[in-house]
Amino acid sequence: MDIRASIAADRSKDNILAIAQQFIKGELNLPSYIYLLEDKDPAISFRFLWLLEHIALQKPDLVFKHLSYIYSLRNQLHYPGYKRGLAKLISVCGFPKKLEGELVELLFDYLNDSNSDIAVKVFAMQALSNICSKYPELSNELIASIESQYEMGTAAFKSRANKLLPKLEKLA
């Protein structure tokens, strides 16, 4: 199957979900297509990242194997959805052990950056909350970051914060 041609011609969610199912069922081999993240057309790269998000929601281990590679592209992929996609993948799949420190720092940067889109902040907040179970000493810093933005936060930010703060306060 020519996935590049398919996601170029049909950018619908239905098409992305159909292709995701082929990866989930093992009909397509993800390592054979991961290079599409570096496609010269940012629209292809973006759609492939979107495809990875849908795969991760059903089969996180399949995408987890590629998180180090996806993270390594952070300085060359500059389309608007990259940060959101990376934060979402980490929130769903977890943190590769060898990158935990770098990813925690990056996600705090995303969360605390006043220029970050709200979806980026929300997924960063979720991913950081997830790792606080392993490293409870991060809870106080995350609580402080959330609380400092809460009053000016959007409904989505406040909703996620309201779900996470009680858990974080127990860990602190």
Could you characterize the architecture of this molecule?
With 172 residues, this protein is mainly α. Helices cover 68% and strands 0% of the residues. The longest helix has 17 residues, at 42-58. The protein starts with a helix and ends with a helix. The mean pLDDT is 96.
Name the descriptors.
10 helices, 68% helix, 172 residues
Task: Characterize the largest beta sheet: strand count, sense, and whether it forms a barrel.
Answer: none
Radius of gyration in whole Å, from Cα?
Answer: 17 Å
Helix content: 55-70%
- Mean pLDDT score: 96
Number of strands: 0
Q: How far apart lie the N and C ends?
A: 50 Å
From N to C, what is the helix and strand string? HHHHHHHHHH
How much of the sequence is in beta strands? Answer: under 5%
- Unreliable residue runs: none
Class based on secondary structure composition and strand pairing? mainly alpha
**What is the count of DSSP helices, taking H or I runs of 4+ residues?**
10
Based on the structure, what is the oligomeric state of the protein chains?
single chain
CA-based shape = elongated
